[in-house]
Amino acid sequence: EAGVVQSPRYKIIEKKQPVAFWCNPISGHNTLYWYLQNLGQGPELLIRYENEEAVDDSQLPKDRFSAERLKGVDSTLKIQPAELGDSAVYLCASSPGTGGAEQYFGPGTRLTVT
Amino acid sequence: DQQVKQNSPSLSVQEGRISILNCDYTNSMFDYFLWYKKYPAEGPTFLISISSIKDKNEDGRFTVFLNKSAKHLSLHIVPSQPGDSAVYFCAASDGGQNFVFGPGTRLSVLP
């Protein structure tokens, strides 16, 4: 079974530029998460999807961040414009959606904003 | 305010000995807890979980203990192996689909 796929793995951009990350969850997983992980910290939830619906985006900085999950499968996370403080690892995870189910994480995208 | 705390940023243990990683939480609504292991340049991988109706769950070399009254859980690895060297994250949920992660503890198992 293929795991969660993320691309790109690494991205370096200048501040004020836009950037997008892509995630393909495990087949059949209805729930998809985007997390941000800063160095030395645990993952912090940005947004959670149940199928194509964003059910929790309370931690997503909506002035510059946006996300979509068309057709309830793949998802993209966009930052426009990027700021220096956005440098972090962006993790995507999916789960089958049953209560208390563990999440399966992708390898992450390491973003560096210069 | 951190709801899930892992107060030891790092831990070193000799191969073959027991590793004990600790986690404390503040939200009394948390009722499901998980441990994840993370190697460099990889995403976290699920290790073991425990529901609040239990106080212990065991899976091979890994055992998680939950003390609800103290809002404390611990992960025991015995015997520790060099391949266990990784960052370990504790995560907690209030029964929904969202999990709050601790900052992690870096475990080094010395040969």
Description:
The complex is a heterodimer of chains A (114) and B (111). Chain A is mostly beta strands and 114 residues long. Helices cover 0% and strands 48% of the residues of chain A. Chain A contains no helices and 11 strands. In chain A, strands 2, 4, 5, 6, 9, 10 and 11 form a 7-stranded mixed sheet that branches. A 4-stranded antiparallel sheet of chain A has the order 1-3-8-7, with no helix packed on it. In chain A, a hairpin with a 2-residue loop joins strand 5 and strand 6 (53-56). Chain A is globular. Chain A starts with a strand and ends with a strand. In chain A, 35% of the residues are buried. The mean pLDDT of chain A is 93. Chain B is an all-beta fold. Helix content of chain B is 0%, strand content 55%. Chain B is built from no helices and 11 strands. In chain B, strands 2, 4, 5, 9, 10 and 11 form a 6-stranded mixed sheet that branches. A 5-stranded antiparallel sheet of chain B has the order 1-3-8-7-6, with no helix packed on it. Chain B is globular, with a radius of gyration of 13 Å. Classes of the chains: A mainly beta (114), B mainly beta (111).
Helical content band of chain B: under 10%
The secondary structure category of chain B is mainly beta
State the separation between the terminal residues of chain B, measured CA to CA.
37 Å
Strand content of chain A: over 45%
How many beta-strand runs of chain A?
Answer: 11
Oligomer: heterodimer
Spans where pLDDT lies below 50 across 5 or more residues of chain A: none
Task: Note the topology.
The complex is a heterodimer of chains A (114) and B (111).
Chain A: E1 5-7, E2 10-13, E3 19-24, E4 31-37, E5 44-50, E6 53-56, E7 65-68, E8 75-79, E9 88-95, E10 104-105, E11 109-113
Parallel strand pairs in A: 2-11
Antiparallel strand pairs in A: 1-3, 3-8, 4-5, 4-9, 5-6, 7-8, 9-10, 9-11
Chain B: E1 4-5, E2 10-14, E3 19-25, E4 32-38, E5 45-51, E6 56-59, E7 62-67, E8 72-77, E9 86-93, E10 99-101, E11 105-110
Parallel strand pairs in B: 2-11
Antiparallel strand pairs in B: 1-3, 3-8, 4-5, 4-9, 6-7, 7-8, 9-10, 9-11
